[in-house]
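User: I've been trying to design a sequence by hand for this structure and keep getting stuck. Would you show me what you'd pick, starting by listing the structure so we're on the same page?

Assistant: Good idea, let's start from the same input. This is the structure you sent:
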């Protein structure tokens, strides 16, 4: 099956099968210990290991329901993981044991980690802005909080401060070999878990960068001939490849690290994917993006790239939430391989892959 995790216009969390058109709404199942009534979901996430789905309910009414809910795949009911929290971003750990989430608190934004099995809750860090990356073994988080970058244990232990001179960037990236890449001052650096920092010899440019899943290549917005360009830098050889000099809103590596997909303008109110592989760039059909995707996801794409899948697991298809000619929301799926194919699944204010 090719399944998408959707939030529909009514705020329901839905899994949609692209092949059959079948839909499964988590709201149709009973919730253990949850509040009654219908509260829209603000955001949702699929566990990277496929064990569970989580979503955040956030009522506009000050006295309304605010909960984190969880559906474990081998059960027939939903659970309330946490009450009284207005979470607006969810990031499962690589192993599926933890759920990290971002919420407003009495002292500013709070990065919190919940143990999915026990419900135990730990506040990891407070600050603004606040972004993070899970270590591959899910025991630590690299955190960018204000002007600081630190490594914080997931069990709530004392953090290790890496820098108090964080440059302009969004999220740090944890590499497969256990180092953290972030911006200090105006250059990219890597830091070992013991705090030793090594400059990478790459200027930070606009501070927008993504690391490929192999930890070898960086996609980076940089300046070339007084123009902003999307480039790829091989961290081992220092080889530099220019992908495009078009304005670029976001970019995402495929799971196998072969391809880089970027979002660029395609006309009035339209965007399109361009996909770089080897020496070529392929352009996919334009689409009109949903307002929610434009406002909540694309400005923070480096963080979402670490928690939500725009690429299918086989690296052959891309998904984006869009609006059709009549103004209705839909998930638009583009196939990268072979002849150009575009598929549509209606009713998707937000959409990601669920496989």
């Amino acid at each position: 099956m090719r399944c998408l995790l959707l939030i529909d216009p009514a705020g329901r969390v839905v899994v949609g099968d692209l092949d059959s058109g079948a839909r499964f709404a988590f709201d149709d199942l009973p919730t253990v210990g949850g509040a009654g009534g219908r509260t829209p979901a603000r955001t949702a996430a699929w566990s990277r290991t496929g064990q569970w789905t989580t979503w955040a309910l956030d009522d506009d009414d000050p006295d309304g329901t605010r909960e984190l809910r969880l559906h474990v795949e081998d059960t027939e009911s939903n659970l309330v993981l946490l009450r009284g929290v207005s979470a607006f971003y969810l990031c499962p750990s690589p192993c599926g044991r933890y759920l990290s989430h971002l919420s407003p608190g009495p002292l500013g934004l709070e990065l919190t980690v919940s143990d999915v099995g026990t419900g135990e809750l730990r506040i990891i860090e407070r600050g603004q802005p606040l972004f993070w990356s899970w270590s591959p073994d899910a025991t630590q988080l690299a955190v960018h909080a204000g002007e600081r970058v630190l490594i914080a244990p997931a069990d709530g232990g004392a953090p290790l401060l890496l820098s108090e001179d964080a440059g302009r960037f969004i999220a740090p990236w944890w590499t497969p070999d256990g180092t953290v890449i972030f911006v200090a001052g105006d250059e990219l650096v890597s830091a070992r878990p013991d705090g030793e920092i090594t400059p990478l010899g790459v200027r930070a440019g606009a501070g927008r960068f993504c690391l490929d899943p192999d930890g070898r290549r960086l996609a980076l917005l940089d300046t070339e001939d007084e123009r902003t360009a999307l480039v790829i830098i091989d961290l081992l050889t220092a080889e530099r490849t220019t992908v495009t000099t078009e304005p670029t809103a976001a970019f995402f590596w495929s799971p196998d690290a072969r391809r880089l997909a970027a979002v660029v303008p395609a006309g009035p109110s339209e965007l399109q994917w361009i996909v770089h592989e080897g020496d070529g760039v392929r352009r996919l059909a334009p689409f009109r993006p949903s307002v929610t995707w434009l406002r909540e996801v694309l400005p923070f794409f480096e963080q979402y790239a670490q928690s939500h899948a725009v690429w299918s697991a086989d690296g052959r298809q891309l998904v984006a939430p869009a609006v059709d000619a009549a103004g209705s929301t839909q998930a638009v799926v583009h196939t990268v391989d072979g002849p150009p194919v575009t598929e549509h699944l209606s009713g998707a204010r937000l959409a990601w892959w669920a496989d």
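That's my pick for every position. To get oriented when you compare it with your attempt: The radius of gyration is 20 Å. The first strand starts at residue 3 and ends at 7.
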